[in-house]
Amino acid sequence: MSWAMRRLIFGRTNAALATALIPTTLTLAVVRATGSAAALGVVLACELVPMLVLLPVAGVVADRFPAQRVVFGADLLRGAAQAAIGVELLRGPARIPELAALSAVTGAGVAFGTPAVRRLVAGVIDGADRLRANARLGVAEGLAQMAAPAAAGGLVLAAGPGWSSLLTAGLFAVSAGTLGGLAPRHAAPYAGRERFTAELREGWRETRRHGWFLTTLAGHGVWHLAAGFLLTLAPVIAVRHLGGDTAWVVIAQAGTAGMLIGVFGAGRLRIRRPLVAVAFGGAAYGLPLAALGIAALAPSRALLAVVAPAYFVAMFGLGVLSPLWETTLQHRIPQDALGRVGSFDALISFASRPLGMTVAAPVAAVTGTAAPLLSLAVLVAGANLAMLLLADVRGYRGSAPGAREQAVVAGAAAVDDA
């Protein structure tokens, strides 16, 4: 493993751990102070909304400026917001207006860091090693996300939420220092670009140019929406019909294991057509939706033996999907547009799942839990397998960057040599 890859993984692991600490810390802090679900919803929404609004802007910034500097600034911004939250919580009970405002700052940091990280990986790691790098990043980030809730909960109980937020700030500072010092070797040179709005329009034109990207993005949006439904309704079905709290723990752990095995294996499996694998990986999410829908229609504890493996397979598919998708974007999208195009990918991902979680309970109250889950199972499978109708999806072998990206990289090398 190269020094650059080690540094990249170390920095991203710290950032992932810090990001995953935030929801648990904020939840416990707000519930302790107010006991109000509405107050918690306001604080969490104040992080999400700026993130969604600023992502297209962040894509332009990621393409305009060196990726390592954007990531450095984004992590410092998030670290500063979390440090301020920590100080606020140490001073006394949580005050919702202050937490909401600082959460909005955190969301802005997430927005600007997300597209820049993708460009940083593409610039630091050689094309042939990107799949391996993305798989290792996925494993490290997955482990960090698994450990974070327990770590945050333990720290809050032992020392209080303020110290948990200060730890989060420190992790973001480590990430900023680690990633901000990386020097991309394959970065696209900055050359007199147009006005900001013109670059934004150009990014959308570049996005529309790739039919395979838009089709895949639609499929991803559907399974993210379905994930919001599943994560909201599945615990209720598991507790009521599949054996109680233990049943949901078994299902959740099966999914976690599937995700980690899938991410770990993606860099080692010989997948000749990555977008075909991405299509099947997304479609597999229909399996636990169907299994849970059947469990809601015909309750039986024996169905746990079907639901848990189905969720394992689905999360395995998503684990394989993630590094393959990242690597495909880094290969097929020109580096000088990767931030803007990638921001639309992040926008769909960040928006669809919370939407699903928001509407799942009201929809289920009207239709029952089985109908939306079974409908989404069909929709997820159909939307993702529809990608296979495109010859550009079936035929892509992922062997090397596209011609336009090669030209950009060559231009960057010429600038470096001059």
From TrEMBL:
Membrane-spanning segments: 39-62, 211-234, 246-267, 274-297, 303-325
Protein name: MFS transporter
Cross-referenced InterPro entries: MFS, MFS_trans_sf
Superkingdom to which the source organism belongs: Bacteria
Localization, UniProt: Cell membrane
Record keywords, A-Z: Cell membrane, Membrane, Transmembrane, Transmembrane helix
CDD domains: MFS_MefA_like (cd06173)
Originating species: Actinoallomurus oryzae
Pfam families on file: MFS_1 (PF07690)
Main localization (coarse): membrane
Membrane topology, from the record: Multi-pass membrane protein
